[in-house]
Write a structure and sequence with these properties.
Blueprint (H helix, E strand, L loop, with lengths): L1 H14 L4 H8 L4 H20 L27 E2 L3 E2 L22 H5 L10 H7 L5 E6 L2 E6 L7 H15 L7 E5 L23 E3 L2 E2 L5 E2 L16 H12 L8 E8 L5 H7 L12 E5 L2 H6 L13 E6 L8 H6 L4 E5 L3 E2 L13 E3 L4 H14 L1 H18 L2 H16 L13 E2 L8 H10 L18 H33 L1
Parallel strand pairs: 5-6, 6-8, 9-10, 9-11, 11-12, 12-14
Antiparallel strand pairs: 1-2, 3-4, 3-5, 4-15, 7-13
Helix pairs in contact: 1-3, 11-12
Length: 503
């Protein structure tokens, strides 16, 4: 009985007690009084389950509910049949509660918004950016509205919007009014070359999952933090827990002494398809083991061979971009294996603060098979140093990329963005009001239940650090360049010695 009611109430939290269509159909069969009695009955059962400490909205088996790091369990959003969920309208953290200073990568928020610092953002800029966007998101008085312009790939837009809704639940009334455009595709869309000189004031602000040196896209956390249903990747907290557990199965020194990569090579001929030439063959052994991921076959087979926690079996893991940046980056870095990062062109919101030889080993794109072979040879000859780099990269992901930090990054980015608006946001005529109900089913619904924010935060967001000074950015770039050159020097000396031995 309890399990059945838990399932019913879990559906109601997501779908709403009675969607409008459902209410209309119900009234054709029963009276309003009957509906009220039934609703009251559900609330009574919910209260009983809560008193019995039976979880009803975490999406986990009875007795296995976990409290997320960003949720305190003392106050939960009340369940209300007539009004779906009563969101608190005011953010009220505990007295004297603090959350420290945000991680260093938050400072890039200022840099990403620098283009509009002097001009501000006008409605005209928003209008000009619409052809580059998949949807427009407007927040007015804590309520979110979305206007869709085109279909995005898979459910990227759905889970991105879901994440923003969870931010509103975490910090109710704290997110300011704003009006923004979002692109869910792969390549960057606002190219700097189109907005030089006098045209700089025309650049539209568009949010996106990645950026590059030649673009103005505003970098935002990607959709997979709330789950990627199409390939069975769970929300980030669940996935990270599984990978950490997978790390414990095989100690670093017992892992295969090769570089591992598994993915879809067909998404990029220039990057990944040619990369497959580095695989073991009759002629060459580049110390690399590459595996093609057939997602069609995996879907049919129930994703038995694509679990990320089962892929921490080698001492080294390779990160290579796909069409552009890849969401695989955080999963690869979390594996405790030393990440061999093939020189990326693109970056996400956290990667710009990672340092070569501290968090990963840099690999040049040209002659990458040869560079990969040397990196593995170096690691096997310097196991303590290689293991330390792998663990430092994993620690960075575990500590700097908590969901609390993800939400705080979103909060500060949106807050700083809103300060640049030169107009008062209003609801677009074709926009749809958003709330925490959804028509998604299957894994999509399961992941939303897992990632739902149950109650407001009991402490404020972390404190946003100041912008980088120009010389600090250059100093950071110099450090990265010097460390990369050091590996190149080691490699040059290695091949010279090897050639000398052969002769």
């Amino acid at each position: 009985m309890a399990e059945h009611v838990k399932h019913v109430l879990g559906d109601q939290i997501i779908h709403g007690c009675f969607p409008k269509v459902g209410v209309a159909r119900l009234k054709g069969f029963v009276s309003t009084t009957t509906i009220f009695i039934f609703c009251f009955f559900l609330l009574a059962i919910a209260a009983l389950l809560n008193w019995m400490d039976i979880p009803i909205i975490q999406g986990l088996p009875l007795g296995q509910a976990r409290s997320s790091e960003i949720h305190h369990e003392s106050v939960e959003f009340p369940f209300n049949c007539s009004n779906l969920v009563n969101y608190p309208s005011v953010f009220e953290p505990k007295e004297s509660s603090t959350n420290g200073t945000c991680p260093d990568y938050f400072r890039w928020i200022h840099q990403d918004l620098k283009q509009w610092k002097s001009t501000g953002i006008t409605e005209d800029m928003i209008e000009r950016g619409k052809p580059s966007a998949d949807f427009r998101l407007v927040i007015v008085n804590g309520t979110a509205y979305v206007e869709r312009y085109r279909m995005s790939y898979q459910t990227r837009d759905v889970f991105t919007i879901w994440g923003i809704l969870q931010l509103l639940r975490l910090y109710p009334g704290k997110v300011p009014d704003l009006d923004l455009l979002f692109f869910c595709g792969d390549d960057t869309v606002i190219k700097k070359r189109n907005y030089k000189g006098r045209y700089a004031v025309l650049a539209p602000p568009v949010f996106h999952y990645c950026g590059e040196k030649a673009a103005l896209d505003i970098v935002f956390p990607d959709w997979t933090f709330w789950g990627w249903g199409e390939v069975n990747i769970k929300p980030w907290e669940e996935t990270l827990r599984a990978i950490k557990k997978g790390n414990e199965r095989i100690k670093w020194e017992k892992r295969e002494p090769y570089a591992y990569w598994k993915g879809n090579p067909l998404v990029s001929r220039d990057r990944r398809l040619s990369f497959m030439k580095c695989n073991l063959s009759a002629k060459h052994d580049w110390n690399v083991r590459l595996y093609k991921q057939d997602w069609g076959q995996e879907i049919q087979g129930g994703f038995k061979h694509s679990k990320l926690e089962d892929q921490c079996t080698h001492r080294y893991k390779i990160y290579i971009e796909g069409v552009t940046w890849s969401v695989s980056e955080k999963y690869i870095l979390a594996c405790d294996s030393m990440t061999l990062m093939i020189q990326p062109k693109y970056y996400d919101f956290f990667s710009r603060s990672m340092v070569p030889m501290q968090h990963f080993w840099p690999i040049r794109r040209k002659n990458r098979c040869k560079h990969l072979k040397f990196a593995v040879e170096w690691g096997n000859n310097h196991p303590h140093e290689a293991e330390a780099i792998g663990k430092a990269g994993s620690k960075f992901i575990e500590e700097a990329l908590t969901m609390r930090n993800v939400y705080d990054y979103m909060f500060h980015l949106l807050n700083e963005y809103s300060k640049l608006l030169k107009f008062k946001p209003t609801t677009p005529p074709n926009a749809q009001k958003l709330c925490s109900e959804t028509t998604e089913q299957g894994l999509w619904k399961e992941f939303m239940v897992q990632s739902i924010v149950k109650s407001p935060s009991d402490k404020p967001p972390c404190a946003l650090p100041p912008p980088f000074e120009p010389q600090a950015i250059q100093a950071s770039l110099d450090v990265k360049e010097n460390k990369t050159r050091q590996t190149e020097t080691w490699e040059t000396e290695y091949w010279k010695k090897l050639k000398h031995k052969k002769h």
